[in-house]
Amino acid sequence: MSTLDLTRCTAVQLAELLGTRTVSAREVAQAHLDRIAAVDGDIHAFLHVDAAGALAAADAVDADRAADRPLGPLAGVPLALKDVLTMRDVPTTCGSRILEGWRPPYDATVTRRLREAGIVILGKTNMDEFAMGSSTEHSAYGPTRNPWALDRIPGGSGGGSAAALAAFEAPLAIGTDTGGSIRQPAAVTGTVGVKPTYGAVSRYGLVALASSLDQAGPCARTVLDTAMLHQVIAGHDPMDSTSLTDPVPDVVAAAKSGDISGVRIGLVRELGGEGYQAGVQERFAEAVAVLERLGADVVEVSCPSFEHALAAYYLILPSEASSNLAKFDGIRYGLRVGDDGRRSVEEVMSLTREAGFGAEVKRRIMLGTYALSSGYYDAYYGSAQKVRTLIQRDFTAAFAQADVLISPTAPTTAFRLGEKLDDPLAMYLNDVATIPVNLAGNAAMSLPIGLAAEDGLPVGLQVIAPAMADDRLYRVGAALEQALYDRWGGLLIEEVPAR
Amino acid sequence: MSQATMELMDFDEAMARFDPVLGLEVHVELSTATKMFCGCPTTFGAEPNTQVCPVCLGLPGALPALNRMGVESAMRIGLALHCEVAEWCRFARKNYFYPDMPKNFQTSQYDEPICSDGWIDVDYDTPEGRRTFRVGIERAHMEEDTGKNVHLGGATGRIHGADYSLVDYNRAGIPLIEIVTKPIEGAGRYAPEVARAYVSALRDLLRALEVSDVRMEQGSLRCDVNVSLRPSADAPFGTRSETKNVNSLRSVERSVRYEIGRQAALLAGGGRVVQETRHWHEDTGLTTSGRSKEEAEDYRYFPEPDLVPIAPSREWVEALRATLPENPAARRNRLAAAWGIGELEMSTVVNAGALDLVEATIAAGADQAAARKWWTGELARVARERGVELRDLAITPAQVAEVEALVQAGTVNDKLARQVIEGVLAGEGGPGEVVAARGLAVVSDDGPLLAAIDDALAAQPDVAEKIRGGKVQAAGAIVGAVMKATRGQADAARVRELIFQRLGVEA
Ligand SMILES: [Zn+2]
């Protein structure tokens, strides 16, 4: 197999090679570990590489295969896990100093499902601290760089997972999406990412940012790979009370079908136009034309409440985050500062949080604490919940006219590192198109639709489906991906600069 | 502790000038097998931090999963308190920082409790006889308990002055039900008694429901007492104080009495009552100032996003209603009438925790007086001595009835019967076996007894003479000597009869 670069293969291709025993899981894992060693100094997608654990998991798959024991379809395929999900005995930092050195004593349900499927976890990927950010610059351990251009951000908060895919360090990755943290990084790195329906994937072991918005999801370089991973991680979990009991839609079959003739596609009027980069708008218009040519019925829909989504989101998220992040106090695990035997426990808690949290985290904790305060609750948290209801109604009305909705995933291509670091509002605007989906609990995908003319950087298209209709994302995504593949003679990701 | 020398107004004077209003908040630890949101056991007294998991330790990423038994217990308590069970309710987070709270918020209920608007009738004694007072119930809601701080070093065992502190999270996440009364008005001078009677009645009810151990000394029932005074019954409520952790029935009564005296002295002196939490000191019988509400924390309640709302179906509610036991007060009255005893005797039985046991002993054939005597006398003494609950003694009501039957048959006397019980408790077998094994049967053959009597009369001729002369009470000395000679295994009444026969005296 010396001529084949295993790191350039899709997950489906690797599964095929493994299934036919053309390569071993150890060879696949080693190839990816070598690739990480070669390029991650530049990219910094990983916070922790678990080489020993990965090779041990690969060997176990090889042993099972040798013994003809039943294996899942992705057994032996490597994956990069966002550092916000717990993995037993492997450091989990959430990109924060406050969790430095913490090794969880338990696996997240997602982690357990990955292990049970024989997927080989290479390590933990970089992220904005506690998933707060759109650039991965808010990681306490330094930023991740975009493989398309090292001076550009890889999106956030899951920039590490997206960059690992785009740099061919892993064919599969797990992200989490609270307001766009899977989809926006996918868009700016030319990869595919899905935020499943809220409750479709267990949150047990996902270190919470905003409990009512957080959702883990699959990331990959193709729609079918993403669907295969989706199938592994989705499903009911009694450990998560908000986990859905409904059966998981057959997303793999949908990704293999790719037939969208007669599918009604709604263009959301409020998500596009002013504020969107010209190159993004051009690629998006082209993609719409492709979808029409494939037989879809494209209609325009309006969701007037979306204009309040960002404001509502920045009340609900900080409110829940201020409570979720209260547990990081230095008493039980992680960082502890100022415990000199003289200071009171309150002082130690305060000093620990002062030293352990970054500026963006503190900003949101303060916003949330304020919004929940007695006397302000109704005006802030209460009003935000009402907006949330209005947004859900807008979606319901839109889905009466269309089977899926589409928009550009992000208003711009990847911006430069540092460009928006001092302007939180500009940073927040990056998620204007993705946030309404989290507020409503729907499912959405981002997939690459080309490079913007002005900067040569990837542009993403967002497909939105009603709750529990995640399969529609894959049907539409696969059709569009195939049409673009035919036009370009390959995947867009193959255009990423070689290193 | 400047309040330690706080002036008190005499209770009668306070009652002449003010009208007290009470409010009680009772926290009950449920005796479910597992915690409220995880599968950890709830056993009391385990090694610190051995009954914990990622969920109740609040580890990053862990999520709560609701214990259905906890919800059922909450609903049964509410139903027994004549509350409405909400058609829809949910949990809320109460946010504050404290090292014994793993998440730095407590999962509780706020404005949407599972049960609300009920009542309970409580009986209390006055010099004019027994009275009944209806206490309104505002709400009963579900929450989780916190861990426990242990402060080490220093003199007081309190956080101030301690060298360091340890936290035991075994208790964290144990299900709690908080039961809050409506303002208790109109109790007047009997407010302290009503407060005590309420907690006592609630404890009986919870015990009958078998939802909690209700052991105040172990903290499975904890009580906060709010007291305020107003000039008259038609005046608006005064400012209240909240006395925390009043953990015995006696202390509930005493702390109310103390707060009435303290607040009355303050108000009469032109001062004002500060809205604050106060600490009850069992040893001195005082309350001291804790945290003032004016500097109290804002708990920033909001709906718990990690748990889905609870919407108990009406079928579920009715099914639970059907499992409710007889109301304890009604049961007491019914049994008192059946046994033909008064309130005082009944209180002795109930306070000893012996009601079920006495009832079962009677059902096993003993008469009511004997059943009560054994359980509230000898057995209660043993339980106290051993520091256990009466029902935890290693003797069954049927065995107590059997002991009593042996007494009635004259096989053993009272003193021997106590030895039989001692044997049963020591695991030597049932009463019959103990009698046989220890050779405890009363000497009932008159032959050996007459010999012993003759010996005793011969040894004490002066006593014999007195008896002959009609001083029958002098026979006690001879009975004593005979009992001594037979090592207690004689029926004292029979000995007495035989003495009089021997001396030809009409007893
Ligand atoms: Zn637990």
Summarize the structure.
Chain A has 499 residues and is of the alpha/beta class. Chain A has helices at residues 11-19, 25-43, 51-66, 109-116, 159-166, 183-189, 223-233, 251-257, 278-293, 309-324, 345-356, 359-371, 378-401, 424-429, 435-440, 470-488; strands at 46-49, 78-82, 120-125, 172-176, 192-195, 216-220, 264-268, 297-301, 404-408, 443-451, 458-465. Chain B starts with 10 loop residues before the first helix and ends with a helix.
Write down how many β-strands of chain A occur, each being a DSSP E stretch of 2 or more residues. 11
- At the first level of CATH, what is the class of chain A? Alpha Beta
Judging from the principal axes of the Cα atoms, what is the shape of chain A? globular
Number of strands of chain B: 14
Portion of residues in beta strands of chain A equals 5-15%
Major β-sheet of chain B, in short?
9 strands, mixed
The oligomeric status of these chains comes to: heterodimer
How far from one another are the termini of chain B?
68 Å
For the sheet with most strands of chain A, the description reads:
11 strands, mixed
SSE string of chain A, helix = H, strand = E? HHEHEHEHEHEEHHEHEHHHHEHHEEH
Q: What share of residues are in beta strands of chain B? A: 15-25%
Low-confidence stretches of chain A: none
**Lateral arrangement of strands in the main beta sheet of chain A:** 1-3-2-4-6-5-10-11-9-7-8
Name the CATH superfamily assignment of chain A. Answer: Amidase signature (AS) domain
Work out the radius of gyration of chain B. Answer: 29 Å
What coarse outline of chain B follows from CA principal-axis ratios? elongated
Instruction: List the ions, cofactors and other small molecules found in this model.
Output: zinc ion
Name the largest protein-protein interface in this structure. A-B, 45 and 30 residues
Structural class of chain A: alpha/beta
Average residue-wise pLDDT of chain A: 96
Radius of gyration of chain A: 21 Å
